[in-house]
Amino acid sequence: MQSVLHKADSRGHADHGWLDTYHTFSFANYYDPDRMHFGALRVLNDDTVAPGMGFGKHPHDNMEIISIPLSGDLEHGDSIGNEGVIREGDIQVMSAGTGIIHSERNRNRDKKVNFLQIWIFPNKQNVEPRYDQISLKDIERENEFYQVLSPNQDDQGVWIHQNAWFFMGNFTQDWQGNFDLKNKANGVYFFVLEGEANIVGEELSRRDGLGVWETGSININAKDGTRILAMEVPMNFN
Fold first, then answer.
1. Regarding the domain with residue range 138-234, which homologous superfamily does it belong to in the CATH classification?
2. Which pLDDT tens digit goes with each residue over 139-158?
3. Is the separation of the CB atoms in 46 and 207 below 8 Å?
4. pLDDT value at position 238?
C-alpha cells in the first residue's frame, strides 16, 4: 500500500477578492512539481465566489469537469445550449471533448457560493461535448459510501469518459468500515469536506486530502458529523 497526504494548509491559495480559491494540485499560479495530479485526477479546486460574481465565458477541451456545490447556488451557461443552476446537494459533469465554452457565476447577491471543481483526464479524446447534472438528495444514504459518479451511463450517479468512480460518505455517527475499490489497479483520493477521520492510520481533518493506492481495501474510522468525498481513479491512464 502506498499513500500521499495533503494537509489543508499545504494547498495552493489565491484570494482575488471575488474568488477565494484553494488548489490541492498545481493550477494557475500555484505550481508544485510533486503535486501535478493523482493518477487521472488532475484538478481539485475548492472555490468560494463572492455574491453576484463569477467566471466569464472560457473554453475547455478534452477534460472531464465535475462541479459539486457545497453551499449556495451556482449559475451555469455553455455553448451547447445548457443554462441552469446547480445547488448544494447537486453534482454536475461536463465532458469538454472537442471543445466547450461555459460560464459560472454566483446566482445570489446576498451570499457566497462554495463549490468543488474537479478535472479528470479522459480515456477518450475529442468526444462530442456533453452536460449532465443530478440531485444527490435522490440517492444519498447515511453512514455508508454511496456512488455519485461512474464510467457507466446506466449506473447510479453521473458518468464520465474514464474508469473512475466517486463516492460520498455522510456520517451521522461514529463509523468504522472498509472502502473497497472497484478496480485494484486504481487508487482513491479521499477529501474530507467536514469533520474528522482516520484513514490507514492518518488523522484527517476538514479539507485534508489523502491518496491511497496499491491496495484493494482501505480501513476508515469516521467521526460523527464527518463528510468525505472519495474519488477512485486509474493510476496509469491514457
1. Jelly Rolls (2.60.120.10)
2. 999 999 999 999 999 999 99
3. yes
4. 63
Among 97, 209, 214, 215, residue whose Cα is nearest residue 162? 97
DSSP 45-111: EEEEE-TT-EEEEEEE-S-EEEEEEEESEEEEEETTS-EEEEETTEEEEEE-TT-EEEEEEE--SSS
Q: Assess contact for 81 and 130: CB atoms under 8 A.
A: no
The reply to whether the predicted model has a pTM over 0.90 is yes
- Cβ of 133: how many Cβ atoms within 10 Å? 17
Q: What angle do CA 55, 140, 132 make, to 5 degrees?
A: 40
Give the distance from CA 71 to its chain's centroid.
14
Q: In what order do the strands lie in the sheet with 202-204?
A: 175-180, 217-222, 197-199, 202-204
Query: Topology of 11-135 in CATH?
Result: Jelly Rolls (2.60.120)
How many other CB atoms are there within 10 angstroms of residue 77's CB atom?
A: 14
Interval 31-87: pLDDT, tens: 999 999 999 999 999 999 999 998 988 999 999 999 999 999 999 888 988 888 999
CA dihedral for 197, 45, 41, 32, sign (positive or negative):
negative
Residue extents of the structural domains in the chain: 11-135, 138-234
